[in-house]
Amino acid sequence: MTRTAAPSVIVDEFTELGQGYQLTRTVRLGDTRFRVVVKRDAYDDQGYGQVDVWLAAHGWTLIHRTPGQQLSGMPSYVSKDTGAKRAAAVQVYDRLLALAVAVAVA
After folding, report:
1. Which pTM does this prediction carry?
2. For residue 4, what pLDDT is reported?
3. Is 106 exposed, middle or buried (0-12, 13-18, 19+ CB in 10 A)?
4. Which residues contact 97 (CB under 8 A, 6 or more apart)?
């Protein structure tokens, strides 16, 4: 896998939940599949950013998790601007995927 490869999106889901919202993207980079989940909740300690990698022998395996308190810049769940919420979640996704690729290539 190279760092310049563009990800091929397998799953791209954005859901508004009761007291939050969640972006889930599964992508393929070369032969490696990553799943990135960004969840914003009314309570910061229930939100998170998480990256899993698919390992044939083990299934989805956690490689990184960022607590909700460290996910800065994400709009509140009460915001009516779904576009802004999704855009903020995508920015966090981009950072988490870049981190995962750096770890996988190292």
Report:
1. 0.88
2. 59
3. exposed
4. 7, 25, 27, 34, 36, 51
Rounded CA separation 45/10 (Å): 29
Q: Residue 1 forms beta bridges with which residues?
A: none
**Are the C-beta atoms of 91 and 36 separated by less than 8 Å?**
no
Q: Is 29 left (phi over 0), alpha (psi -120 to 50) or beta?
A: beta
11-54 confidence digits (pLDDT tens):
999 999 888 899 999 999 989 999 999 999 888 888 999 999 99
Per-residue tokens: 45: 């300690």
